[in-house]
Structures are given as C-alpha cells and as structure tokens.
Amino acid sequence: MPDAPSTATAEDTLRALFAEVLGVPEAGPDDSFTGLGGDSILAIQLVSRARLAGLVLSTRDVLRKDTVRALAAAAREPERTAPADPPQRTGRITPTPIMHWLRELGGPVDTYHQSLVVRTPAGLQQDALETILQALLDTHDALRLRLPSGTASAVWEPVIEPPGAVAAAGLLVRTDARDVDDAALPEMMKRHIAVARGLLAPQNGVMVRAVWLDRGPARQGRLALLVHHLVVDGVSWRILQDDLVTCWEALSRGEEPRPEPARTPFAHWSAVLATEAGRGRRMAEAGAWQETLRTDPAPLGGICALDRLAPERAECTFTVTLPSEVTVPLLTGAPSLVNGTVNDVLLTGLALAVLAWRRGQGGGADDGGAVLVDLEGHGREELTEGLDLSRTVGWFTSVYPVRFALGAVDTDDARSGGAAVGAALRQVKEALRAVPDKGIGHGLLRHLNSLTGPGLAARGIPGIGFNYLGRFPMGDEADWAAAPGHDFALDSADEGLPMAHAVEVNSAAHEGPGGLVLTATWTWADNAYRAEQVRALADEWFAMLTAVAAHAQRPGTGGPTPSDVSLSGISQADLDDFASQLGELL
Fold first, then answer.
1. pTM over 0.85
2. How far apart are CA 67 and CA 35, in angstroms?
3. Which residues does the annotated region (Disordered) include (predicted)?
C-alpha cells in the first residue's frame, strides 16, 4: 500500500490544482469541487494532474469526498514498482462497444475526426515539433491503431502497432504563414484542415494528421491536430494538450520528452470490457435495459426515433449560447440544490422542455410525462480494482438510454421557476442514479454479448441524443493554449454517415471574456422536423434552464433525495415530510 503524503503538502498541491482545473482564482481547503463547477470529466483531469504532482486519487474519490481537505487526507503516493505482469499494450484488440456503435451506423467513417487548434511557440523549429508529436504517438497507444480490413468491412479487427511504427514526420504539414495576419489565420487553417482530413486512413494506421502554420521567430504559430474519432474523445484532448506543454518544457531544458504513459493501456481496457460483458451481474441488467427501451413515448407528435424515418434526409444544425448570468448559477449553484451534478441540471431542463414542447405541438396526451433520451457519458468507469484511465487516450464514450418519468408535471409552473422545477430535478437525479455504473452496461450487453445483444438491438434507439462535454477553460495567450477563432471540432463526420438520432444536442461550458457560458449545438434530420420546431425546442430548453437557475437561488428549495441516504425503501415523500417536521421544530 503506498504511503500517504503529508496532508499539508497535499492540501497546497490540491488547492493549486483545483484553481487550475476549474479556472477559479483560488480554492480554499473546504471548497467543494462540484460546488466550484466541477464535473466527472474535470474530475478525471484533476486525477491525472494530481498523479503528475505525486498524489494518487481516483475519480470516485474526487466526486465523493469533494473538498480539498478531504481529498488531501485520502491521497496516496504513487507506487514505485512496476506491476509484475504488465498489461497488454499492442497487438490485436477486441472492438469496444462504441466502435461497434459507429460501425453499425452503416456509413463512411474514414475521415470521422475531432480536431483542436493550439498556439505554438514563436521560433519553433520543425524538428522540435516532430519530436513532440513522435513522443505523443509513441506514448499513447490508441494513436497507433489500425483497421487492417478497412472501415467498410462487416467486422472490425483493430490492431495497435508498437511504438515507432507511426512516424510523426510523415503526418505533419508545415505552411509558411509569416506574412499572414491574425484575422486571416482561422480561414487559412480551415482550408488546410479540409485537405488534411482527407488524408486520414484507418486501414493504413493513419489516425493522426497535423497542420502547422509557421509564423517565424517573432510570432506564435498555429498547430491543428486532427485525430480520428475512433481513438480520441473529450478527455483525451485534455491529456494531449497537457502533454504538448510538458514535452515542450522538456525540450526547452535540453531533455528528451517522455510523457507519462497510461496506467491502464487502451488494449487492456478493451479486454476488460469483453470480460465484463459476460459476467452474470452485468447480464442481469439486460431486462432493465429492455424495459427502458420498451417504447419511445411519442413516436409522432414528439421526438421520434430515426429508424422510423426515411433514410433520405439532410442534416441541419445551429448553435445557441446561454448567457453567463444564467450559466454561472445554473452550473455552480443548482447542482448542489440536490447534491447533484451538472448533468442532473441540464437533463432536468431538457426533460421539462421536451414535455412542454410536445404538448405545444398537440401531442403528449398519452405520454405519461415520460421522456426517453440517449445519453453519452465519458465511459471511463472504474469497473475493477486498479484501473486508472486518467492518462489513457482513446474513445471511451458510453451511449445508453434513460427514461425520465415526470408524470403530470406542471410545465408552466416549472417555466416560472416554481416548485415543479425542484420536483423534476429530484426525479431526474434519481433516474440517473438508478442507472448502474453510469450506463456502461448497455453498450456491453448490446454489442459484446451474443446472448443479450439481439434483444436489445430489436428495441431500437431513442429519438433524441444528448451529450455534455464538460467545462473548457478560457484560452489565453500561452504557448499550446487553444487558439482564438478556431472552434474545437466535436465530430466532423463523413458526408453520408447516418445520424444516430432524429435530434442530437452537444453541449459544453466555456470560459469566455464575459464569463462562463453554456453553448449547445442542435443537429436534426430535416425529414423529421422543421427548423422552426427544433428552434422552439432549443428556446424551451434554455427557458427551463433559466427557471432551474432562478429556482436554485430561492431559499429553502434544496434537500436530499433517496439516493443520498443509506436507508432502504425510503421515498422522496418520506424525506420531504422529515424536512418539513424538522423545519417546524426549528
């Protein structure tokens, strides 16, 4: 068992890391990680940076213990000996559930990627940049993944090549941009990214491309990293961006860059998933997942499932932003109302919005107040003792359905910030807490188990998909920081790749010049809904989120929910009665 570090030293380190990860000026010993706006994705980043600073924590530690003081007491020092039986890092791996999910969409995916544009140091030399990129390729196994049979085959058999098999020099394109002003850089980079994405080739193991706009010795350049979505996700980008910084710092000291490798390699994780899918306790979930998917509550008047739509459709999209004066109390105050999370709050607003929108469309009379949503989670669950995915690059996303049954909720009262908001927030939180291991079992049973997979596949999918990518700090002028004017590309899909849902919502919180804002990109199939219908739903969602934020600022509106207490069989009504009686005594 590793020794515990000095509590005082650990507190100082964690206070600095809280401020760094959460983008706040400072953090005190009793400040709450979630109270300062932290979420499960940022918790993974905190765990990763804490390990680099010599403190071992788990994501579960961060979300349960929550404060600097409690985490400092729980922190351990890293083990100083390598495991006797190192886990698999290379070779053929079992396709993960999300890989199967993508393959089953049935369209072209060769250029399906995410990208990030960062500032590069003035005077950066090409050989130095190639050295940094090579260090990333050699450290993070998933970046060397190859699909020998190609993405069009009926069966994917991914292989991870050994370090050194992929040469960074062949993936980097340098362009002289010394005479290009700042305002013209985004458009110039956009053109180069359009070319680079076409050079991704999973069959040949080309999962990464890089474009460097070199602006010479006096001005910062720009680097675009394009990574195939099969091997990267939102958490991975945070790891890669941190590694760009540490590699550059090592080179600047005259040292060889050596990013810390993953404690749990991606290949080992894929094997863990394959084993987990066959465990009896996991297979016991199948009935609950089938019940969740028994029917989409509103196949006509509401959000309808895409498999009931004609395949010929155009994909439409728009992005909306919730102002800072609403976002800040919504994300930093409202979750603590019910000892909850940011997802609890956002999904409460979405469930209320769908019900109100559905009723406004003339439907919903027989829906029982139910809303069925496909959720995306980060998927980095601690399934077995010793797993540490805080430094593992790859696509870990889990996709799973959740049914929110709000009954005869008064959506008009909710929209005004009334008691209906609090009731809905408690119901949504409890529905999410009832999902085992944050939904990872659905993908395991749907894609990796031949006994349970066919039954789940026959149920179809919900009509609406939702993803919250977490909180991103404001880009500054530091080297390797996100560059202004360049949007982080969530999912740049191939033309012709079918949508998974009739309506999809991808959201994230961003620190901007005016403060923290929530942005949401809505995408829909035009043969399912008209633009004005989806815009009305987006407006309704923001109206409900505004109501949640207002409700959270009213005194006496919070309180525990059944999942907060260890007594079995206790209901929300029991807790509310107890709180009322206690209030009368006080």
1. yes
2. 9
3. 74-93
